[in-house]
């Protein structure tokens, strides 16, 4: 931990996909700040919660849930609010970047991809803003990707959702700004999670991608945590409707 955000201590935080990949690092990062963390995931995360409790003396609240089941997702968020108080920091992190080609996509796959990568984000935001309005404000961080900014082929349904996340973030930032609710997006570059290493990382692909980066180090999940904490904290209290890129310098904005 390189920085302490004092206002995050005791804050009620809800993370989708918070038990693996980038999400697990986010859960740990918020716990280190003293936040009350609840998260959902499809796979059992009991072992991860045991590890966090052993390391930090506090246990995150894990609720097993498929985020494409919107009533279950909302029920999980309500359970988290009952346990920790109104959610004032929501991190929409869960996503699936399964590779596919345009000519192979049918309606079922399209709907599945959008349900995970966009639809669940919207309805998590919808549920969160109710409590945030009553609490006097909050911060929502939506994870997108630089994939759509690069115009990458190989997963068009995913990049479509990525772009949609940014449009949604900006619209909701405008709508709920008067309620002191901030919405921002984080666009990571190629973060070398265990899943990425197992499925997509080859020496050739990694070399090509690093050639595009200004900074020649690979990105790990831990490199995304600081930006997320900053956006959840009042340190960024006048920042909303923005997309923060953390990619080692592949794409540029502005």
TrEMBL record:
GO terms for molecular function: oxidoreductase activity, acting on the CH-OH group of donors, NAD or NADP as acceptor. CDD domains: SDR_c. It comes from the Bacteria. The keyword Transcription regulation does not apply. Residues 11-190 form the Ketoreductase domain. Belongs to the short-chain dehydrogenases/reductases (SDR) family. This is NAD(P)-dependent dehydrogenase, short-chain alcohol dehydrogenase family.
């Amino acid at each position: 931990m390189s920085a302490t955000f004092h206002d995050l201590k005791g804050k009620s935080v809800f993370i989708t996909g918070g038990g693996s990949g980038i999400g697990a690092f986010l859960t740990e990062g918020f716990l280190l700040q003293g936040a009350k963390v609840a998260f959902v995931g499809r796979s059992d995360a009991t072992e991860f919660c045991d590890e966090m409790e052993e390391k930090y003396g506090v246990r995150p609240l894990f609720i097993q849930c498929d985020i494409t089941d919107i009533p279950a997702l909302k029920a999980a968020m309500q359970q988290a609010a009952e346990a920790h108080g109104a959610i004032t920091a929501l991190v929409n992190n869960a996503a699936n970047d399964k590779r596919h080609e345009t000519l192979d996509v049918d309606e079922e796959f399209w709907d599945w991809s959008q349900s995970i990568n966009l639809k669940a984000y919207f309805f998590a935001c919808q549920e969160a803003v109710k409590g945030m309005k009553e609490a006097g404000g909050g911060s929502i961080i939506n994870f997108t990707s630089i994939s759509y900014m690069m115009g990458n082929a190989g997963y068009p349904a995913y990049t479509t959702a990525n772009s949609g996340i940014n449009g949604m973030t900006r619209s909701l930032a405008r709508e709920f700004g008067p309620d002191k609710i901030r919405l921002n997006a984080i666009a990571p570059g190629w973060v070398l999670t265990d899943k990425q290493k197992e499925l997509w990382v080859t020496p050739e692909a990694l070399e090509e991608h690093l050639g595009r980066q200004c900074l020649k180090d690979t990105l790990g999940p831990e490199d995304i945590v600081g930006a997320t904490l900053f956006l959840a904290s009042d340190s960024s209290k006048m920042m909303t409707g923005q997309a923060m890129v953390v990619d080692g310098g592949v794409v540029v904005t502005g």
